[in-house]
Amino acid sequence: MAGKTAPEPCPGVAEAVAYAQAVADGEVPACRFVQQAAARFLSDQAAAARGEGPWDFRPDLAEGAMLFAAQLPNIKGPEAGQPLRLMPWQRFVFANLFGFVERGTTTRRYRQAVVYVPRGNGKTTFAAPIALYLTFIEGEGGAEGYAAAVTRDQARILFDAAQQMVRRSPEFRAAFGVAERANAIFQERTASRFVPVSSDAKSLDGLNVTVAVCDELASHRTALVYDVLLTAMGKRRHPLLLSISTATGNTSGIGKQLWDYAVRVLDGLQEDDRLFALIYTVDDGDDPWDEASWIKANPSWGQAVQPEAIRAIMRQARNNPAQEAAAKTRHLNVWVGADEALFSTRAWRACGDPDLTWEALEGRECHVAVDLAATTDLTALALVFPSRGLDGKPHYDVLARCYLNEAAVLEARNPSYPGWAAEGWLSVTPGNETDMQAVEADLRSLAARFRVRSLAFDPWQARQMRQSLAADGLPVVEFHMRTGNLSEPTKELGAAMLAGRLRHDGNPVLEWCLGNVVGHYDARGNVYPRKARPEQKIDAAMALIMALGRAMSDAGSEVELEGFLAGPLFL
């Protein structure tokens, strides 16, 4: 069209988009987390094209970053010394991190990024160019870039890769005035530098982060390095904290915590538009010894990852239990030894029924259970309305009500708390402790609306409330929170969800709590539901399990655990 110039072609971005579409269409083998990341990218890109939402998508910005990476030399493998060639999945990372910006600006959307991928897939190959680009090419004065890890030796792995790229790129050094020394890469005219840092306290003082790459986050025993970097980004316009890692057996560290948080973001259980998450692993139920699983987990299969080498490693590990755990973590990106998320959020959502209301269930028999807390935890009560379906099996309608004190909501210890409170899913009580009198009043009200057959409490909780309710004739019962009481209702809850024998009203607080439940199994196959970390609340889920246990006990018969395996019910 006269008067307009055609947009510059962006082949790198086109390849990234094609990769995302191929993943979404099932043409590229990928686990559900990668499929979710691809769907998120395509949806957000389409919304940006329509002018909807807070983000623009600027392919030119992403293409520029990719072109810079292509000017650097590959420093490892058979292509060492040749210009770096980003693989499709790496281009997908670039397209996300550099393409999405705040609408009408060039301020990047993502402030944090987490990429989990098995060993040997080229984490360093894409992370080092990103660090160099943000430190030296964007032109921010006094930019500070960091290669960060727990130990100095680990921090130097990524730093040394970046240093070698600079050392072997005289054109880059000349064009941008970049020089390197033993422990720093620097740019005099902008007073910018890229250096390695570790958990040594002195090296972490006074940072002002432009970009930081936190390497092998799963090996970090504590969150010290990560937290220092995260809190040191406040003075920059659009800083980036990029964490790259492979799973380990360290299931209590920041690496697993961030993995779980990323999963909740990808599942839609946690809103965080400033976090980019990409997790390559196998799906639950995949055979770890099947080559199809290895291909799914390793996006660089046949390129950086040599198939014959992986075949040999996995063949040996299968016949040697001592090597099995290491093979699964390093080459399938599986957290060996971790408690597994217990309930399928997809199965739960499939059981949602908007016509299921409190009013519609008035007068029905139900079992009520209460999980009490005073300060930071939720207080929750759950109602289970049992019935016998046309299939002759037990069916359940379930409702829940959750409470939290005003201080915890205002502090937004979970970013969703204020929204849930505004929508009426979370009952907020004044002060910094949950008002138990309000909870007791609601229990009395429920007893008037429904035919409550049992009202279950943990005997360690709320002695005065239990005595008061029992004195007024409510059917208060004790429910001891031990494996023998929790295992069967926990399994039945999963079975009922999978079989469609359960209905709920879409309560997002209850869904969040269910998504946080992990299962610990004993030698006899009994499961104990628990939370992995303090911030992952499960109170509403525990109340539901208790109420379901009472319903099963009241029925006085065994339930058929249809579709529920004697092990974790994976997401």
Structure commentary:
By secondary structure, the chain is an alpha/beta fold. It is built from 20 helices and 20 strands. An 8-stranded mixed β-sheet has the order 5-6-7-4-8-9-3-10, sandwiched between helices. Strands 12, 13, 14, 15, 16, 17 and 18 form a 7-stranded mixed β-sheet that branches. A hairpin with a 4-residue loop joins strand 6 and strand 7. Helix 5 (123-137) crosses helix 6 (152-167) and helix 11 (307-318) packs antiparallel against helix 12.
**Estimated share of beta-strand residues:** 15-25%
Global outline: elongated
- Coarse structural class: alpha/beta
**Low-pLDDT segments, ≥5 res:** 1-6, 557-571
The largest beta-sheet arranges its strands as 5-6-7-4-8-9-3-10
Radius of gyration: 27 Å
Helix content: 40-55%
Mean pLDDT over the full residue set: 89
Q: In oligomeric terms, what are we looking at?
A: single chain
Calculate the terminal CA-CA distance, rounded to whole Å. Answer: 51 Å
Q: How many E strands? A: 20
Largest sheet: 8 strands, mixed
Question: Main traits of this protein?
Answer:
elongated, disordered C terminus, alpha/beta, 571 residues, seven-stranded mixed sheet, 20 helices, eight-stranded mixed sheet, disordered N terminus
